Amino acid sequence: MANVITDPVIVEVKQLLNTWTDRGRLGTQYPQTDFTISGVYLPAGNSLTVKVETLINPTDGAKPMIVLGTPGRDSEEWNLPEFTLNEGVNTISPQLTGKMVYIRYISGNKTPSGKVKISFENTTEYIKHPLYIQGTTTVDDFINQMKEAPAEVDAVMTDNKYSILVFPSVSILKFLLPGDKQYSPNNIDFLLKLYERIMKISWDGMGLSDSDPNPLHHLPSADNRLFVTESRKPLVGATMNATNYRIMVTNLDPQIKKMLSPTELYGNPWGVAHEYGHLMQQNNVKPNSMREVSVNYYVVNVKEVFDKELGRSPFIRKNKSYWDNMIDELSHPKEEPNYWKSSADDMFSFFDQLRVIFGNDIFRVLSRIVREQGNQNLDLSLDDGKKYNLLSKLIEITGYDLRYIFEKWGMLNSLNPYYKESINRLIEERNIQPSSYDEVFYLVTPYSTPNPLPVLPLPLQGIKTYTNTDLQPTNELDSKNKYCNYESKTGDFKDKRDGKIYPYKTYGNKDWFMTNLNYADSESIAVPTDLTGQVYGKYYFIASGKNVCPSGWSLSTSSDWKNLISFVKQNYELSDSQTIASLKCGGDRDKVTDGLWGKGLGSYSEQELINKVGFNMLPAGLYDSNIAGYETKEDELGSGARFKTEYWYVQNFDKYTDVTSRNNRNSRHSSSVRCVRTSINANNVQSKANFEIEIINENN
């Protein structure tokens, strides 16, 4: 960001870390902004001439962009016009409405290297917008800039490090200057400092620190800033809101004052801290009904710190009467409680309780563990997956059996039975012993501690870091041999190309390989943990039109899969979910530690039925050759089986569901292959011995 806006405007712009990259590391809901202030406003109907000179070449070849309009104030970021700039002179065509001009020069690399000089040389095209840069601009100069600028040109205030505030000059002059005498003459600086402190207190509550030995827990990148603005018209159903890149206040005076008056913000930071909390919310432990709940984990910290500095009594969110009524409802419910349908206010009271019982560290550890876990082994497609992830992490972190307090609040009764049973298994796996405290936790309030609890908070006695316990077994071949059975085969087929023998079985009028194809050609890719293909076979490019199956056999089509599933369902008299489950083999880690199928909501049949059906589907996943790995958690080894069909489609079978799906993937993806042919015994009456004799004769 330039320290001085010259005339004509020339800005030296350092390439910044793409804010979406940092969001991925932090696991948060929304990214902060990676915009650079240009100092320029483009009036309606004017073109804009922009000259670009590269000072340091970027290692990733990225080019700078011009963004027209303020996120939220003019439109959301996905609708703002963006123009890629080339070296030399660029011309941006006239716009129908006037727009603030921002520069976006970003990189997905962790160490961006590029630097450019951007010149807005035709001074008749643009207007310099009012700009306050902390440490550079004086208050008087900023006031003069606002008075001289046209009313439609917004003003920008920044500390050059943490936040960018974009508001109409009239709002700044009305609520920030020359008012707030308590903080004059530097009340702009004090306001910027308050925003900085809200961010830093929130980061501390999330367990973020640059001194942490694990870079995953370092502070948000200094390249990315909090962007705060005012809407042009009243917001519907809200006074403030947050989404990608920004938080925004409605254009009503009482609410604008909460964002621009240091006295208001210092005295009651809840609204701003709440919206910043939305940016920092971690999706993996945020069920849909908790959107306005988990956002407040760190807001309480901000309120506590500010209240203490202002000499107020320790902050308690709800009064004693509220808590007396709440404990009475928990103890004597009039109907079966359902936490997930409670008001956001009541839902957060559960976390108030946890804060009293275990202290603020419970939220720091939770945030850290969620970052370390990332999306590993999570099914977030259903809300119950997020609920389970939250509840299980609270048990693991505290080291206590929290099922009783969960039941009192009504957290378990509506939970999918699979996840309820998973919580029971977790207690056993973690060897969490019963405690005399377990059945009185729900009686704790900020005003009372029931017997036999000692002085609170209790120390956390569970995990401090995340360890993935849902891992592929060390010896995958042993698991295949243990949990896959080929005795129901119709016969064996020998591939003349390499001599490999494949058991096959007749389903309806089709013969199917009972294992994945394991033929090595120029397009095949070995599974990283199974280089010989004895377990999973090979991966094959889904975009290839080549038939990789042996002569007389062909790639299974979507029609083949449909007919297979229909035949198995009818022939073995199964339900839809039982049918899909019966096709799998290799063991389920919900039941056995050495299973090839990872933990998930999808069913897995009893071994007797698996042996009888004999299809023996294994979760080899979908390989991405561009990254030499797996693009999503659903594509990972152990998460699902993917089979190449016609065109660029794959047939999907997941550990998360009991249904199959078909979707289009692209040329960088490779999947397993099952070969089929029209059955050589159309009436399906030949004996197994006859098949074997015929195959041996066929292959000599």
Describe the protein's architecture and organization:
Helix content is 29%, strand content 18%. The chain has 700 residues and is an alpha+beta fold. The strands form seven sheets. It has a six-stranded mixed beta sheet. Helix 11 (361-373) packs across helix 12. Mean pLDDT is 93; it is low at 684-700. It holds the Pfam family M60-like_N. Residues 33-359 form the Peptidase M60 domain.
Brief characterization of the structure:
It is built from 19 helices and 29 strands.
Helices and strands in order, then pairings?
Layout: E1 9-14, E2 16-17, H1 19-26, E3 36-42, E4 48-56, E5 65-68, E6 82-84, E7 88-92, E8 99-104, E9 106-107, E10 115-120, E11 127-128, E12 131-133, H2 139-148, E13 155-158, E14 163-167, H3 169-175, H4 187-205, E15 226-230, E16 240-243, E17 246-249, H5 253-260, H6 262-267, H7 270-280, H8 299-309, H9 320-331, H10 344-358, H11 361-373, H12 383-398, H13 403-409, H14 417-429, H15 476-483, E18 491-494, E19 501-507, E20 510-513, E21 524-526, E22 538-541, E23 554-555, H16 558-571, H17 576-582, H18 607-613, E24 623-624, E25 640-644, E26 649-654, E27 660-664, E28 669-671, E29 675-678, H19 688-699
Parallel strand pairs: 2-9, 12-13, 14-15, 15-17
Antiparallel strand pairs: 1-10, 3-8, 3-11, 4-7, 4-10, 5-6, 5-8, 13-14, 16-17, 18-19, 19-20, 20-29, 21-22, 22-28, 23-29, 24-28, 25-26, 26-27
Helix pairs in contact: 4-7, 4-8, 7-8, 11-12, 12-14
